[in-house]
Amino acid sequence: MQTLLDVLSQAQKNGVATGHFNVADLALLKAVFAAAQELKVPVLIGVSEGERDFIGVRQIAALVRSLREEFSFPIFLNADHTHSLTKAMEAAKSGFDSIVFDRSSMPFETNIRETKEAVVTLKSINPAILVEGEIGDIGTGSEVREQAQSLSSSLTTPAEAKQFVEATGIDILAPAVGNTHGMLKSMVQGGTKKRLDIARIAQIKTAVQIPLTLHGGSGTDDKDLRQAIAAGINIIHINTELRIAWRRGVEAGLRHLPDEVAPQKILPFAVDLVKQVAHERLRLFMGET
Ligand SMILES: [Zn+2]
Fold first, then answer.
1. How many Å lie between the centroid of ligand 1 and the Cα of residue 181?
2. Comparing 226 with 136, which gets the higher pLDDT?
């Protein structure tokens, strides 16, 4: 069975990216898994602290492990945006494949010190675990907003990326390259798209030479995503687009079955819509669209 590190190395070689999709319930997990299975591509399941609080840390680890084992399928689990070492250790002990240790809201030197400590501690629990660090401000929350979030800092520079990677020993870096979490209403309607600084991604890749993650991929221009992959992005996070599809699916299920009370009959509408989104995004990340 491939490890997540194998998958990322292969993705870099092949010029493709691995899709990272956040889940908060079984409908989302089923949908993402079905899309990846159909396309026969490795997939990364993400759970934020809030999503983990709802599903349960050990419970989501057991679900993902059961899919991996029953279907011999390269499905992996990431503890997305983990803000404390305690929560990161809990995920590592539960068998997560990777952890986004996010102290990017702290001053740079503090972020370096705490991330370095987290790398040592988490690898003492599981030497194979991958730790992702984050610098710069890409906003918070995979939500739909009226107005853009005001960000505290500008784009990540290649020099600070290099210093951060060398000082912390992280396996994966999440830079700020024009990406932000969440979507504007105008993006949901399709009128506007997020744009990325492709040249900056390429400069950061040259400087650090490790896998790069693009957070906040929802609502990003398709062409920018293709160019970002070519410039060195290896993992792309999609959350808000799935949440929108989930909600629309639940609403459609309730509308079509006004008297139905069985969740297993209502929720497949959500599974279908989420699966379509994951399928489209995975095809783009594979270079097929
Ligand atoms: Zn993120």
1. 6
2. 226
The pair of three-digit structure tokens given for residue 36, joined into one six-digit string: 């990846």
CA 3, distance to chain mean position in Å, is 17
Query: From the CA of 260, how far away is ligand 1's center (Å)?
Result: 36
Residue 267, pLDDT > 80, answer yes
What is the rounded CA–CA span in Å between residue 238 and residue 258? 31
Task: Enter the pTM of the model.
Answer: 0.96
> Could you tell me the two tokens for 238?
């999609």
Spell out the long-range contacts of 189-195 with Cβ–Cβ below 8 A and sequence spacing 24 or more.
192/219, 193/219, 193/220, 193/221, 193/224, 194/219, 194/220, 194/221, 194/224, 195/220, 195/221, 195/224
Alpha carbon of 112 to ligand 1 centroid (Å): 19
- Output the CA 73–ligand 1 centroid distance in Å: 24
